[in-house]
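Question thread 4412

I'm putting together a teaching handout and wanted feedback from people who do this every day. The idea is simple: show students a protein as raw sequence, then show them the structure tokens that encode its fold, then repeat with a second protein so they can compare. Below is the first pair exactly as I plan to print it.
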Amino acid sequence: MPFYDIYFPAMLNYIGDSHPGVRQAAAYGIGVSSQFAGQRFAPNVSGALEALFRVVSLPESRNEDNAHATENAISAIGKICRNYGDRVDVARVLPLWISCLPVLEDKIESHVVYEHLCFFLENSPFQQLLFGSSPDLNTKILSIFAQIIGTDLISDTHNGRILSLLKTWHLFCPDKLSQAFESLPDEQKGKLQKAQNPA
């Protein structure tokens, strides 16, 4: 990335732009940089995460005009956590990232985001978020699964991985799974039950 030192500071600046299209482009660019700039990106991890979380926290960040900028920022946070886990306080940042989900509007970024979610929940040390987390976070994760399973927000492969995660969760932490399940709205309970036990 020969022009990294020129364009990356601009992206950090424009991530705070008032126009959502500019914020979306900047967020996407930061995410791509975290994937391909290697160690040149490493010193920017903290600053990039702070800037991206600010975008997600903006007033009306989820309205129609801002949704794509917000969801690109959420996607970029996931990319940074995955690519620079050794430089991120994952015990603090990943629960914050999960609290920003679901991603429901941008179908391209939703596949990326839920790929990262599955990866984190399948691999140590991130697995502790599923098997050792607070009841509220367990419920949040299960609610996300209920909202996305069987939809075009994820691929068939992700559907299978979610079902596998639910089986693992039931095997190792049945009480936590049951507690989280009972906290869900009836519609989400029904959707998860149908996904696990199709007619």
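The second pair follows. I'd like the answer to focus on this one:
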Amino acid sequence: MDCPGASVLDCFAGSGVLGFEAISRAARQLTMVEVERQAQDRLQQQVDRFECDAITLMCGDIVELIPGLTNQFNLVFIDPPYAMPELRYHVINSLLEHQRLIDRAKIFFEWPVAESFDLPVPELSWLKRKKAGQVNFGIAEWHPSR
């Protein structure tokens, strides 16, 4: 996925692999959110090793944090814990409500193959959907003018 100059939001940072990959591909700015304190501590150690001012790490519930974010994003990763599938919808709805997406923003979704997932609004359209083992993933694009 193209990242040069992108403002990236990793909603469920976990190990940080998606966000760190975006930074390594020349993203301009990365905001990582993690609710679990232990995972957040490990991420902070990795961020410190990067010595990169372009990374912001936040600890908390992404849905509660979105209204206070000041950035708009070109690229968003939404891959919540599989036991909480409703979070995909809560996050995207909050991003839209608070106008945190730039026109033509790309949103990466991940969900288990045993579960169906449909885009919640017509302004989002699939660019790609694939299956890898027991995981489905897809990239959607935001077009607010539709």
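Top answer:
Good format. For the second protein you could add a caption like this: The radius of gyration is 14 Å. The chain has a mean pLDDT of 93.
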